[in-house]
Specification:
Blueprint lengths: L21 H4 L19 E7 L4 E9 L7 E3 L20 H4 L6 H22 L1 H6 L14 H19 L8 H22 L13 H5 L11 H30 L6 H4 L2 H11 L15 H34 L15 H13 L5 H25 L5 H8 L14 H6 L5 H20 L9 H7 L1
Antiparallel strand pairs: 1-2, 2-3
Helix pairs in contact: 3-5, 5-6, 8-11, 10-11
């Protein structure tokens, strides 16, 4: 990675810019040289002081390795690792900040937005199906690389983006841009946490997986042009590769004892057979747009049929056989995720992913009990205001009192005050936000930001 400053280094024959310690070193380090590449394995991780003229690094602190404080490390010893990966250049405008200068809010905001765009484009390239879902058809002739090597490569990309994003000072940024910054940081950290736990080794279950996602390919693009049809044919030919790569990942999970529940895995072969029988991949040949000539229609029908018969169906059958005979029999017998390796950490990671907090399961349970008490107390106030002695009698009246029927605006002061028509589905969503906002405020942790629910509420 080309950097405009020196930072924590891997010292020896294969030096490294240790990005994970970037935030610890910015204040103490002055610029001296550039590294063009970055590897991701360190023998020594140190904080260094640079003497530019002599091109010497002097160790200030050592977190990993045998180097002692004060020992020099000469610049000629630094060489890129053979397995290093080139990463996009770090924003040039931060050179002045690292020299002790000041970068304006507009400059930092511009750099952040450029990084957002770069990360977004990276995701589109890495996940062509996602790009298609978002209406970007540049990669419509490709399917993602599902191999273990590709997953590891994406992890390095995520780590690089996170390091660059966290190096952008956010003081003084507008609230929305601060929120965007925090959300991307959280998303990247979640990806990294999932990778460290090897969650990618359990990519399928009874609800979804690559086998069901591929079956939706005919519905993922508007097949309204010859180009879209040709891209679709290209994707059909890649399905065997995708299923083989997924099998490779599943075998890695078997080796690491990272297995879903057995009786749920046993449902997947039947799902594959159902897809084979329904053959959704042939649907695009049922109707063609008028812009595609009859000869092209015949050609496409033949190409799609050949791809299905020669590639898709055999690949699905082989995948189903693997699941039924090798994978499912090794599924875990216990339901709890705690039974998996690193179960406690894995469970807490799942909680963080679902709740956006660092609270424990017990803390969330207790919060839920407190909220139930709070809500019932507020309901009791309403019941007594309406002349009822308790909640039980108030609830009983809701079944028969026309005043509280769904068709009456009396049950919706929110609608009445805003002059809105009764819409129970929309109202439920609004009331849920109003009820849950105090809970979210209570549950939030200092280092995370929440979606601005009141703002989004006003915008609806």
């Amino acid at each position: 990675m080309r950097m405009n400053f020196s930072t924590s280094l891997r010292v020896g024959l294969l030096p490294i810019v240790a990005l994970s310690f970037l935030h610890l070193t910015l204040a103490a380090i002055r610029p001296s040289f550039s590294l063009d590449y970055c590897s991701w394995h360190a023998n020594d991780i140190v904080l260094v002081e640079v003497t530019p003229r002599q091109c010497v690094f002097r160790v200030l602190e050592s977190w990993k390795g045998d180097l002692e404080a004060g020992s020099p490390v000469a610049l000629p010893e630094l060489q890129p690792a053979t397995d290093a990966m080139e990463i996009a250049a770090y924003p040039e405008e931060f050179a002045e900040t690292l020299r002790g200068g000041q970068v304006t809010v507009d400059e930092r905001l511009a750099a952040q937005n450029a990084l957002f765009d770069e990360q977004y484009e990276s995701d589109l390239r890495e996940f062509p199906e996602k790009a298609t879902d978002l209406g970007d058809y540049r990669y419509n002739d490709r399917l993602a690389d599902y191999s273990v090597a590709a997953i590891v490569r994406r992890e390095k990309i995520n780590e690089a983006f996170l390091a660059r994003l966290e190096a952008i000072p956010t003081a003084g940024l507008p609230d929305q841009d601060q929120l965007s910054h925090d959300l991307l940081v959280r998303g990247l950290k979640q990806r990294i946490a999932d990778f460290e736990l090897k969650e990618y080794e359990m990519p399928i279950n009874q609800f979804n997986g690559v086998h069901t996602g591929l079956a939706d390919l005919p519905n993922s693009v508007p097949l309204d042009s010859l180009k879209h049809y040709d891209d679709y044919v290209a994707r059909l030919h890649q399905i065997p590769r995708v299923l083989l790569q997924t099998t490779e990942v599943l075998r890695a999970g078997m080796k690491d004892n990272l297995m879903p529940v057995r009786f749920l895995l046993e449902k997947i072969p039947a799902q594959c057979q159902g897809i084979i029988d329904a053959n959704p991949f042939l649907e695009p040949t049922n109707t063609y747009p008028a812009t595609i000539s009859v000869p092209d229609q015949k050609r496409l029908t033949q190409q799609i049929t050949d791809a299905i018969v020669g590639d898709v169906i055999p690949a699905y059958k082989a995948f189903a056989v693997f699941i039924r005979t090798e994978y499912a029999p090794q599924g875990r017998a216990t339901l709890s995720v705690m039974s998996l390796p690193h179960g406690e950490k894995r469970y807490q990671n799942d909680i963080s992913k679902q709740t956006n907090t660092h609270m424990s399961a017990d803390e969330i349970h207790e919060l839920g009990l407190r909220e139930m008490d709070r809500i019932q107390d507020e309901m009791l106030v309403i019941a007594k205001k309406e002349g009822f002695a308790d909640l039980a009698s108030f609830r009983a009246s809701l079944k028969t009192n026309p005043r509280w029927s769904p068709g009456s605006l009396n049950c919706s002061p929110y609608c009445r005050n805003r002059g809105l028509r009764w819409n129970p589905y929309r109202l439920f969503g609004q009331l849920l936000r109003l009820i849950m906002w105090p809970v979210l405020q209570t549950a939030r942790v200092p280092d995370e930001s929440w979606l601005p629910l009141p703002t989004s509420l006003n915008a609806r």
